[in-house]
Design goal:
Blueprint lengths: L2 H27 L11 E7 L18 E7 L1 E5 L11 E5 L3 H25 L1
Antiparallel strand pairs: 1-2, 3-4
Helix pairs in contact: 1-2
């Protein structure tokens, strides 16, 4: 395998992990942002990416990863004084699993670091 191919794989890995970091940090930032009545909440996710069993030594095959939004359930909090509260006093927020998002931040950060080390070692 030529060195350039390994560098390309490391670049693809850094891009993918950066996108995962971006998505998780956006989700954490929006966890406590109220959603107005009639609107839907979304979570950010990375679509596409690495395909298991790829024949090109783990390179991304098919579509490039993209940052996209997915609908998510809502959680309701009783806060009758809030301007977006319903008649029952409930305020709607996106249901963000903070444990999952923090785990994504940690694993994506470590994956990015591993790709940087591989890239710098071969450069």
């Amino acid at each position: 395998m030529p060195v350039q191919s390994v560098l390309d794989v490391a670049r693809d890995g850094m891009n993918y992990e950066r996108m995962r970091l971006d998505a998780a940090s956006r989700n954490i930032a929006n966890a406590n942002v109220p959603v107005a009545a009639g609107q839907n909440a979304t979570l950010w996710r990375v679509d596409g990416g690495f395909t298991a069993g790829a024949s090109d030594f783990g390179r991304m095959v098919g579509q490039s990863p993209t940052l996209g939004e997915q609908p998510v359930e809502m959680r309701e909090v009783y806060d009758p004084g809030h301007p977006l509260a319903t008649e029952q006093g409930m305020v709607r927020y996106p249901s963000v699993d903070m444990v999952q998002e923090m785990t994504t931040l940690m694993t994506a950060s470590r994956g990015y670091e591993a790709n940087v080390r591989a890239f710098n070692f071969l450069r």
